[in-house]
Amino acid sequence: MNNSLEGIKVLDLTRVLAGPYCTQMLGDLGADIIKVERPVGGDDTRGFAPPFVKNDIGEDTDLSAYYCGANRNKRSITINLSEKDGQDLIKKLLVDCDILVENFKTGTLEKYGLGYKDLKSDFPKLIYCSITGFGQTGPYAARPGYDGLIQAMGGVMSLTGDPGGEPTKVGVPIGDLMAGMFASVGILAAVRHQIKTGEGQFIDIGMLDTHVAWLANQGMNYLSTNENPARLGNQHPNIVPYQVMPTSDGYIVLSIGNDPTFERFCKLAGEDQLIDDPKFKTNADRVSNRDFVTNTLNEVTKKHSSEWWLAELEKQKIGCGPINTLSEVFADPHVKAREMVIEMEHQTTGKAPLKLIANPIKMEQTPPSYRNPPPLLGEHTNQILSDSLGLSEVEIKNLKQKGII
């Protein structure tokens, strides 16, 4: 069975998360990803540890869990981009590549003669995707971008957290991840254009731009009212009740998206009088009386256990769910049935498989595939230089002695 991007070759000049997450996505879909790393240290995330992946006797390997999460389906080559010989190697590799992805600070690769304008005339079919904190234009273009910084500047921290507490970032690096996702979408569209016309193009992805884009309903709430949305903790800005609810022994999430569902909830809870109460009757009424409605319903849900509510709400087809820890997430029968954890062999882990989070895309004809585990630093340097560029053992040895690879 073929992959969607089989035959597409990507030169990956990215590190940390936004770029590697993008290229891992392309790799899962079949592209051949050549990951270029620094000869010493490699991708920064190789050192983002602990935790390290453990081997079959429970000892730490030198593989950081962070690095493994965004670097499967890649081959690693080490090249010193600051040296002319290294820059020449990049250009030689590009002869056989369709796509280049990089996430250096704006202007960095131009210093090495590896910017899009430097390469465009020699590689007219090249799709060149640049992922930066703030994009290639605008007053912040020269600034470095970091996920926490982008979450702060992009507004999501003003929306997240307890109403009486401090602004709070999302618990995963969502700014990086969404930039990588938008980059992969743009690249796929550019591949379609490349196939139709034979032309490459430049793709400019700014993390702040992508962050603003996924403000979604909250961004629209502001644009429609010119009022900054308040932090609501676990509550929904436009729907009530759609939030964490206390039970007699813990908490659940209750998601009631329309008035007929709220009516079913009231009947299940034995609170029929709320159905026609003017503070509860419609979603607009409930949003307008948010605090009163929330306080009232909190006392209702405290009457039964989480298990009771989850079972009974499910019978009535009312949106609900437990608040799982990660151990509960990965043990969940539905997550298991959807095969959201994969296992790969890795030379550092011995007989123990390397567990990775699977690609969530389910495709009937060309599903994602898992061909290569996250590579060791420079693991494929000799192979790539020999097979792709035809360099001899002596030439490769000389490059190593000069610190180019």
Q: How would you describe what is shown here?
A:
By secondary structure, this protein is α/β, with parallel strands linked by helices. The chain folds into 2 domains: 9-214 and 360-401, Crotonobetainyl-coa:carnitine coa-transferase, domain 1 (Rossmann fold, 3-Layer(aba) Sandwich), CATH 3.40.50; 242-324, formyl-coa transferase, domain 3 (2-Layer Sandwich), CATH 3.30.1540. 38% of the residues lie in helices and 15% in strands. A 6-stranded parallel beta sheet has the order 5-2-1-6-7-8, sandwiched between helices. α1 crosses α8 (174-197) and α8 (174-197) packs across α9. It is elongated and about 85 Å long. 33% of the residues are buried. The model has no long low-confidence stretch (mean pLDDT 96).
Q: Which features would summarize this protein structure in a list?
A:
3-stranded antiparallel sheet; alpha/beta; 6-stranded parallel sheet; 2 domains; formyl-coa transferase, domain 3; 405 residues; Rossmann fold
Short précis:
The protein is 38% helix and 15% strand. By secondary structure, it is of the alpha/beta class.
Alpha-carbon distance between the termini? 35 Å
Shape, please? elongated
In which order are the strands of the major sheet placed? Answer: 5-2-1-6-7-8
Number of domains: 2
Q: Helicity, in percent? A: 25-40%
Assign the CATH class of the largest domain.
Alpha Beta
* Assigned CATH architecture of the largest domain: 3-Layer(aba) Sandwich
Count the E strands: 13
Spans of at least 5 consecutive residues with low confidence: none
Largest sheet: 6 strands, parallel
* Rg: 25 Å
